[in-house]
Amino acid sequence: MSLPKILSVNLKHNFLIHFLLAVAVAVLTPIVFSIHSLDARMSAQPIEMLLPFIGTILLTPIFLPEQNPEIRDVIRSKKTDYLAVCLIRVVYSVTAILLITGIFILVMKACACEVTYQHLVGSFASSLFLGTTGFAVAGLSNSVSAGYMISMVYYAANIGLKDKLGICYLFSMYSGGDFSDKYLLILLSFIIISIVFMILRKSEK
Q1: Helix (H) or strand (E) holding 37
Q2: Which end of the chain is more exposed for a tag (fewer CB within 10 A), N or C?
Q3: pTM for this structure?
Q4: 3-state SS assignment for residue 1
Q5: How far is CA 62 from its chain centroid?
C-alpha cells in the first residue's frame, strides 16, 4: 500500500474523530479558564492544565485499529509493515498536537495574553508527554483502555504530587519551575516512543 493511500485510509477512518475531539478540548478550554489579558504565568494555566488532554486523545489510540487480534493478523499479512503504519500515525498525531497548540497560543495572543514561544513549547511538551504515557501503556499492554486510564492517573498524580515529579511535572510553567525541563520532557517523550517501537518490533520476531 502506498504512503498516500495509507494516509488517506488512516486519516479518514482512524484519525478524524480523535482530531475533532482534540479540537473540542481546545474550544472548551476558554470556557473553563479565562484567556483574556493574562500575564505570562497565568497564561500557562489553561495550556498546561487542560490543553494537554489533546495529547491523550491523539496519541493513546495509535494502536486502536489493530487491537482486535484478528484484524492485527490481517494487517500483518499485508506487504505494508504494521509498525511502519503506526509510526506514520504517530507522526501526523504529533503534528496535530503542535498545530492545535500553536493555533490556541495565537488565539491567546489575540486576546492580549502575554504568551511567547515558551508557552508554545511548554504546552506542546505537556501534551506530548501526557499522550506518550497513554501511547506506551496501550502499545505494550495491547489495551487502549488501559492507556487512557494510565494517562488519567498520571494527570491526577501531577495534581497530587506537584513538582515532586521533577522534569516529568506537567505544570512547571504555571508553578514557576525551570523552563528547560520542558525541552527534556519533549526529548523523554520521543525516547519512550522509540523504546515502545523497539520492544514491539522485537516481540514480532
Answers
A1: none
A2: C
A3: 0.91
A4: coil
A5: 11
